[in-house]
């Protein structure tokens, strides 16, 4: 059990995530209060504003993963961590647990805000937990793979952003709009780079999308295991 929570026990592990979420919540409350006092927006518009602000969560997760998963390499403590009493495989498993835990912390925030502005839904809560877990597992696994190669948090973050966020979505969306081939469109729609944030912002993944994301994460983890175990640390 100790190895599962090893990464989470590091000083300041949840601090950055909690601070970011608190700032987002503060921004959310100030924005909503301003709409009520000055713009006299109806409830539907206020609820829409809350949903729009919650779309920032993937960026918070991106930054958190990029920083936490490259900490040892950037601080030059990777030799101590990966050659200590725990095996390299155990360390990677602890990191897997840590980014899933990060996703669940963000999920709790999302659920609380959703309840405040939209009411409670058991089905919606279950969908949120599954969506956040799948998202952070897949994105975290690939982030861990990239960090094992680059050993740099900034470069890792930029690569993950380029492949999964606005730039990639714009390029893939343009490719879908410009092609007449149904095969190409279906292929793009099933790319993990396209599914990751489109499914997340939709609030749930279909069974097929969930399968693709989980497979994507598993493959990234397997490659990471190989790289870390062969790396001369």
Explain this structure.
With 233 residues, the protein is mainly α. 80% of the residues lie in helices and 0% in strands. The chain contains twelve helices and no strands. Helix 1 (15-39) runs antiparallel to helix 2, helix 8 (153-164) runs parallel beside helix 9 and helix 11 (192-202) crosses helix 12. The longest helix has 31 residues, at 88-118. It is globular. It starts with 14 loop residues before the first helix and ends with a helix. The relative contact order is 0.12. Keywords: Membrane, Transmembrane, Transmembrane helix. The chain crosses the membrane at residues 12-32, 44-69, 96-120, 132-151, 158-177, 210-228. This is ABC transporter permease.
Order of helices and strands: HHHHHHHHHHHH
- What is the distance, rounded to the nearest whole angstrom, between the alpha carbons of the first and last residues? 25 Å
Provide a count of the helices.
12
Approximately how much helix is present in the residues?
Answer: over 70%
Number of strands: 0
Keywords: Membrane, Transmembrane, Transmembrane helix
Protein name: ABC transporter permease
Transmembrane segments: 12-32, 44-69, 96-120, 132-151, 158-177, 210-228
Organism: Clostridium tetanomorphum
Q: What descriptors fit this protein?
A:
233 residues; mainly alpha; 80% helix; transmembrane
Précis, in short:
This protein is mostly helical.
Write the layout of secondary structure elements.
Blueprint: H1 15-39, H2 43-54, H3 57-68, H4 71-74, H5 78-82, H6 88-118, H7 122-150, H8 153-164, H9 166-178, H10 182-189, H11 192-202, H12 207-230
Helix pairs in contact: 1-2, 1-3, 1-6, 2-6, 3-6, 3-7, 3-8, 6-7, 7-8, 7-11, 7-12, 8-9, 9-10, 11-12
